[in-house]
Amino acid sequence: MIDVYECNPRYETLKYTLRLVERTDCDDLLKVYSDAKSQPFFNSDNCYGDDFCYSSSEEMDKAIAFWLEKFESKDFIRWALVDNIKKECVGTIELFHREANDFFTDCGLLRLDLRSDYELEDRIKDILSLIIEPAFHLFNCSKIATKAVPEAKERIQALRKKGFELSKDKLVGHDGTEYGDYFVLKRKIRKWEEPPRISKVDEDFFYNFLEKELRFYPSSDESSPWLPFSLNRPFAVYDISKVTDEQVKLLYEAIPSLFAKCLRKGHMIYSCDWNHNLFLYDPRKPENCAGDSEWLPFINSEGIAVFGELFPDGDYFFHIDKYGTFGYLSHPWRREVWIFGENLLREFDKIYEEIGFVSKAVVK
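The structure corresponding to this sequence follows.
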C-alpha cells in the first residue's frame, strides 16, 4: 500500500480539487463551519466533544492546525474541497483507516463537511466521485463508511446513487458510546468475462506506434550499445534491478491506479506481452476489455485490472494509452522501465522510490 501520509495525493476534476488543508483556507472554511444550515450535518462522533461549530477565525485556525498535526502523526488526512470555478474552499473531507472491535473495522471512515449551498445531491455525487475509487487503495480497507443523519435527504440520495447502504450496525466510540446513521460502501471485485477479440485496426495501430513512434529495438543483450527505444517526447528511465518482493506487491497495487488516474475519458490502454498477447482495456472496467486470446487479468485491491506484467520476468511488457499519450515500457534484460507522458511522469515521480525504482535518466 502506498502511504497516503507520505505521498499526500491530490485529486482534481474540472469542477473540484481535493488537496491537503492549509492554514490559508481559514477564511473560506469559517464560512463552512459557522454555517448554521450546515452544522446539523457535521459528523462529530467520537471526537472528544468537538462539534466543529466555529464562530471565529481563531477557532477555525486552531482546528486547521490540529488537522495538520494529525496528518503529520498519520492519524488522519483532512482534505480541503476547492470549487475550481469560484476558487474557494467549500468544505473538507477527512479519511482514515479504522480498526476496532465493532462492525466498522477494516474501514475507511469518511467525514464530509460542506457549506450548505453544496449540500445538494448532484454536487455531493460529483464530490464523492473524487475520492471513492482511490480510497480503498489509499487506506487499505474493505469498506468505506460515512454518516448521514435522516435530515440530510440530499446527501442520503447521493450516497445511495453511489452504492452506499444504510447500516443497522452501530459505531462504538472510545468511551463505549454507540453512534448510528452510517452508510457503507463495500469494496467489490469486478467479475471477469472472456473478452471479445481485439480489432485488426487496433492491432495495427499498436504495432505501428511501437515501431515507428517509439522505435522499439528488441535485444536480449543487456550490454548492447543500441537503446531499446528512441523517444521524441519527455521520458524517464528507471533501474528496477534492486526491487524487493515486497516492493513488487506495492508495484501491482500502485501502477494500475496511476494508469486509471491518467487515462482520459473514453480512452483505453494497450497491454502487450511481446510476441504473445495484446489487449485493449479500461483498468476500471475490465469486463469491457478486448484481447487476442482468452486471458485473466490481475485485479488489485482497488478493483482495478492490469494485463501483463509490470515487473518483467523474461519478456518485454508494454502498457500504452490507446492514443499514445502515455506509456509504461519494461525491458527484462536491461532491467529497466521507461515512462513517457506528462501526467504519468508527474504521478510516477511521487512513488517511484517507494516501489524500489532508481532514476537513471530524465529527458524533458
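The chain has a mean pLDDT of 88.
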